[in-house]
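<context>
A single protein, sequence plus fold
<entry> Chain with its tokenised backbone below
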Amino acid sequence: MNQEIHQQRFSVAKHLVAHMGAMQAQDYAMAKWAVGLRMQTSDDASIVEAYNKGEIIRTHLMRPTWHLVSCDDVYWLLELTAPQIKTLCKSRDRQLELDEVIYSRSNAMLEKALCGGVNLNREELTRLYLDENIRTNENRLSHLLMRAELEGVICNGAIKQNKLTYALLSEKVPVRKLFSREESLFELATRYFTSHAPATVRDFIWWSGLSVSEAKKAVEMIKPSFILETIDGIEYLFRTNQSDISPNNSLYLLPAFDELLIGYTNRSATINSVDNPKAISNNGMFRPIIVENGRVTGVWKRTTQKTKIMIEVTFFSGASDFGMNALESEIKKQALFLGKEVELVFIQY
């Protein structure tokens, strides 16, 4: 693995996120831990600071879901991947009676409401839409906001009263870094295989959300910089230096939707078919996972209380002696990251 889980080399959040290319982030709390566990030193507050400052950006791109990206990458990634997402959304747009006229009205309203550094949450924006007689029911609000993100109008704002907000992307990230389409394809493929290798073309197609033809074109461009190896008839790209191989006697508490699982189509190297439904639901929800010696051996759940954090741990086949000892160290990491006392609870299947 080259995902910085075992061997952390980065001390700045946006550099880590840039290395990963993008990190799936619909669960904001878990996304912060996904970044923090991969850094040399960090805590929840420092990740929030980078987020509030606009050093890391949370927005819709690649596959139609939220991702964290470096502020240096947000514009060229949107330009590369947004058209594919908008095409995928056309059928649902028709069902919701959302057309280009409504989207144009929505974007204009957002630009006016958020101008001058204003940050508004979903409830506040909903009221503005109602004032403009733009319907937000039946999930229309999510589509209106996602389209504004895809078109580079809005992105995450600062956390306000513990609520997520939206801000104007042009104010959050004033410097627009753009590439040609070929340069963007090359860059995204390089980032993915550098951070996720060994991986396949099929993995990259899934992760990037690009069309099959463009994804294959991107991989062909970067192949000279990687080692190719065919295993069971499937070609994998390896980095020339596989620097983050998980050693024996390693255990990690990885967040929901972590790149270790969600970054690939074939996850059999990490989790077996029997345990897969315990970690990934039928509707595509990825639970927080326990990874021991490179394999998923359980799941965990974190509940925030007023003065402490409760972590419930479930091992699929019972905890090993090593797992029990290593778990104590991982719980301490959570306590340090969150700045709260952590209580551990075991749940049996």
